[in-house]
Design a protein that fits this description.
about 120 residues, alpha+beta, Alpha-Beta Plaits, four-stranded antiparallel sheet, 3 helices, 4 strands, elongated
Length: about 120
Amino acid sequence: MSTRYDICLVTAGSRAAARKLASGLLRERLAACVSAVPGVESSYWWQGRLERASEVLLLVKTRRALRKEVMKFVKRHHPYAVPEVLFAEIAAGSPEYLAWLGANTVLSAKPPEGKAPETKK
């Protein structure tokens, strides 16, 4: 079966927060590319009130196998109490781009700390 890929949508309240998230995801190879789209106006309910905010939308290109790790990373490093982390399947794309995406991300989530990877005997 071929490798599957996703686009993860994450909003941030500032360019600085967006850059920090993007840099970390790239540094850890959880994403091959993160595109930042500034000037997104979000309207939403928060604590019983209708809110409106200017945000930066991050488009995180990653492997499907990394969903949990991407979500953990964003939750750990995002300044929001409830950050937006939504995944959409990439159903098709340029074979060259998808190969590049795969070559620039880790293959799968890291094994839990303290446990050695299993080996065949």
